[in-house]
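--- STAGE predict ---
source: upstream dedup step, 1 unique chain passed
mode: sequence only
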Amino acid sequence: MARHLDRRVQRTRKSLQDSLMALILEEGYDEISIQDITEKANLGRATFYLHFKDKDELLLEVMNQLIVDFMDQAPQLTEAQWHLKDTKTIVKLFDFAAANYDLYRILTIGSGGITASRQLHHSIAENIKGFIQAELDTLNAEPVLPVDFIANHFSGSLLATIYWWLDNDLPYTAEEMATMFQKINLVDRDNLLDIKQPDAAPETQPAKRKKRTKDKPHKTKAEVEIDPNEITQETINAVDDESA
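--- STAGE serialize ---
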């Protein structure tokens, strides 16, 4: 009986979520009322309040599910975005974004979209933060900027690029976007994560100094050692001329 009840609850909540998403795409989040949602779902207002206190809470659940789907379907994309070694995984990211255009529209419509977008931004930043910290631990290095700051920057860069691409009706292919994204973020990566590795510098600098000490300056005739037994008047005159 409990299992049957759980399934019914799940169906009801799913129906309310789907109704909200459909209405957002039709009218925008700010214009939607709870009455609109329940009518769309063919449910009563009392049923709505059994599950959610207001439409903001319903939106939060919708976005949580969308974010879970995003991270589950492309868990390697945030790692690829950080390492930027292979554009193929970044292409998958843009393909995923294009296939989920409705998610983009929800994120950019009304005040509810702002909250949802921030939530997605935070989720991606937390994921990237884990990859950054793992790399730092592997290198036994310290970044010159806080890890939280770097993760937030890369997450914002990723979402801003996707939003721009979708908002402009995909002016470039996913492959072209991946290549451009890789190039510009490699520059950011090198600048933002200036990893200091103390063990590397001491090995190179002394070698250079040692190399320079091997270069002996050209000696003048006056500095050349002269065997006392071979001193002649001509030798003395040559040294005097050089010293003068």
